[in-house]
Amino acid sequence: MTGRVPLTAAGRAVLLGTGVLLGAGVVLGYATLVSLAVAGGALLVLCAATVVVRPRVRMTREVVSERVSVGEPALARLVVRNPGRLPVPELLVLDRVGGQPVEVRVPALRPGGWRAVPYSLPTGRRGRLLVGPLLAGRRDPLGLFRRVQPQGGTDVLWVHPRVHHAQQIPVGTVPDYEGRAEASKAGTMSFTSLRDYVPGDDPRRIHWRSTARVGRFVVRDSVDTMEPTVTVVLDTRVSVLEPPAFEHAVEVAASIAQAAVETGRPVGVHVVGEDPASDAISVLDRLAAAESTSDGDPLRLLEEVDRAQPGGALVVVTGPAEDAVAARLAHRRRRFAPIVVLEVLPAHHEAPPPYRRQGMAVLSASSAVEAVSAWNHLVLGGVVG
Questions:
Q1: How far is it, in rounded angstroms, from Cα 177 to Cα 8?
Q2: Residue 133: is the preceding peptide bond cis (ω within 30°)?
Q3: Cβ partners under 8 Å of residue 82, min gap 6
Q4: DSSP conformation letters of 192-208
């Protein structure tokens, strides 16, 4: 931080006007203009004097709600301490959430005093959002100068996609498209994902490396590898899913995957182009961090399908129909039972009727709500019929 006191837009306008008045007064010989220029200069000096001293404060931020869904309230708490011997006037602290500014006003602090100020974080868009760093600002009463002081580190706010109620295939069965069920056999337990520790969890399941990284206990989730897995593959190619449709596709994938998680079924989620170094610890974390990819090659989608564990249901969430992709997925019906392709169409596009063949179904919808509704109808009909 340099010793320069930055002008605001209003301050620059006053400085420019002062210079113009001074120049005009000197050139034209008008003492009134010179007097106005002197007054403007004095005003600038007085306002600068109110912010020239940097605020000696220490700030820490705590994100109270680290994981929320889109649109849900997320709270943070700002703790500001004044370690100096002089009072600190009211501060305007600027925080950032995914690049979006959030202003927090902190009342004046007496020497040695502190305040805890709660404030809301914006959750209007899904994502792994970086929170911070903090900027402590001081502004003069006229708003001509503003000085900021960066402090504190950064935190992560996980804004999960919306989850709609989705039906799940009953545990212990592998239904085919006609509704016939085959009992699964008990097998060995295998690691599948990480989640937060809850009272009653076996301490031997604590994943110490992740616990050290995130600062709280994280445990391993395991599933029976012989029990059929529900595999959800999310297409991220921008060539088939434009941004609005992509958000609906993420919600569809989250709804189906979360339904499996809540019923205790093993679920595998594959995201095209996913960063393997992500610090996500749950399925919803991974889907929160999902981003569109520019690679339009359909092989990227099929590669993710081929990485999936065979034997259970395969759900592919993608965009409008691609004949080559549909044909290649149909050839994989011996590996999965059933295969369901959910096509998310651009807004205002009329969805074609469901396409059904032995062991495979293709559903189309222009929103997440419609897609999940079509999924529920298919699942209930398949299990009952």
A1: 66
A2: yes
A3: 56, 57, 88, 109, 110, 111, 112, 113, 114
A4: EEEEE--TT--GGGB-H
Q: What does the block give as tokens for 338?
A: 């059933």
Dig out the tokens for 46 from the structure: 């007085």
> Hey, what are 183's tokens?
């009992």
How far is Cα 170 from Cα 313, in angstroms, rounded to an integer? 12
What kind and span of H or E run contains 104?
A: strand 100-106
Phi, psi of 305 (to 5 degrees): -60, -45
* Residue 64 identity: V
- pLDDT over 90 (residue 252): yes
Extents of the domains making up the chain:
9-49, 58-160, 227-384
The pLDDT tens digits of the residues spanning 188-237 come to 455 556 778 877 787 888 888 888 877 888 887 664 445 678 999 999 99
The answer, yes or no, to whether the previous bond of 352 is cis (omega within 30 of 0) is: no
Q: How far apart are CA 341 and CA 362, in angstroms?
A: 5
Superfamily the domain 58-160 falls into: Immunoglobulins (2.60.40.10)
User: What is the pLDDT averaged over residues 29-42?
Assistant: 90
Quick: pLDDT tens for 301-345. Answer: 999 999 988 888 999 999 998 888 988 999 998 888 889 999 999
175 pLDDT tier (thresholds 50, 70, 90): very low
Whole-number pLDDT of residue 8: 86
Burial class of residue 91 (count of CB atoms within 10 Å of its CB; 0-12, 13-18, 19+)? buried
Select from 290, 263, 292 the least CA-distant residue to 278. 290
* Cα-based distances in Å from 134 to 3, 62, 81, 230: 20, 12, 14, 42
Closest CA to 146 of 135, 155, 159: 135
pLDDT of residue 274: 92
Residue with tokens 């007496």: 110
Distance, CA of 146 to CA of 7 (rounded, Å): 6
Amino acid at 55: P
Distance of CA 348 to the CA centre of its chain: 26
Q: What is the mean pLDDT of the chain?
A: 86
Say which CATH architecture domain 227-384 belongs to: 3-Layer(aba) Sandwich (3.40)
The separation between the first and the last C-alpha atoms of the chain, rounded to the nearest angstrom, is 71
